Amino acid sequence: MRRRDVLWGVSALGLLGAVGCQTAALAQPVAADEAGVEAAFLYAFPLYEIARTGQNRAAQPGLNRLGHRAVLADDTARAITAPNNDTIYSSAQLEVSGSPVEVIAPTDLKRYFNITFMDAFTDNFAGIGTRLTQGRGGKFWIVGPQWQGVAPGDTTVLHASTNDVWMLARIVVDGPEDLAAARELQQKISIRQVVEMPPKAFAVKATTSDDAENFLAVVNEMLARSPGGKGHMAREWNYTAVGVGSGVTPTAEQLAMWKAYLPKGIAKLKEKFLFRDLMHNGWGYQDAGVGEAQSTDLLRSAIALGGLAALPEAEAMYFQATQDGSGAALNGANKYVWRVPPGGVPAGAFWSLTMYQVEADGRFFLTANPIKRFSIGDRTKGLMKNSDGSIDIYLQRDKPEGEKAANWLPASAGATRLSLRAYLPKQELRDRKWRVPPVVKV
Q: What is the model's pTM?
């Protein structure tokens, strides 16, 4: 088999589009004012989040080491905002400045799985799995922007635009009785560093994103870790006037501007993650470009805050609701019904509805409940259907009486956020022609 190289981005067309945008941006450095700080913040926030979460992965299991989470996420899962309760995970924080990292992936033509690779800006630049490789695995090398070696003939080379890469594998689980079989597939994923040498550790510990000095120190280190000017790295010199860039030390005046702006910036990201630009029946429809290099800096940063590691639209779509169909805020003090029409949600793999409690910092986590049910969907056993094939999902704190209990998704105690996920969404969903039904207060 010939060695196969995959360029940055999902396709060559996508790469050319992204590079074209960056070339235009290079001629437009920001001014040393609040607008310049905002532009730099939206550019840099994903770097900070990848560093913050990546440092946790670097501590355990370690850089260039694979960790398995072989249980479904529950209310104790707090490492990543809006955790997925549909799949088990395998995760690795990769650092490839000195050596490629080899990933060996299994083949499974029946079970949905996805192994995605995100650069330091959170863009999904390559992947393996049901959609991208038709379920076939193999041997893959993840290499950095300055790598110029030659891989073995049976190896696919995946080029990253940054030396820091997050690898995240998702394997669907069809209920507790299916967990053992899903774990068996998970254990067939492995990684190794091709050249034996210590990976480059993170030097600056991320604390909180509202600490201006720490925020800039972390971001500037992340930029310095990936020389070569590939991908979004080519734009870093737009922001030196406000203290952002490889080797840049912010001045006191620049730090003062950042301290004044950061609360506004976080609020802007929280607002964007509500996805109010396209609302229907109380549901926010995601913007095009989630998880991709062609995304805007605002969308990329909002996803980093509220839905880190979101997949590209061809792989999955996400719909969010913090209000019912009448426009009133969702709250666990009320009772609601969500009716799934006959035929279900148009997804080629599976769909699920997840309940989250809203945290004060804008993040979302699963809701503790007595039956340990955090999501409900087309794989949930024993759901009661109406005579026309539709399904009523009951969203409330207390257990419904009688047969309704089979369709119960326990609600949070206060402010609530619902997330509908559709994996391998069909075209009518991607075209926004299929409308998500409203949540109705009863």
A: 0.89
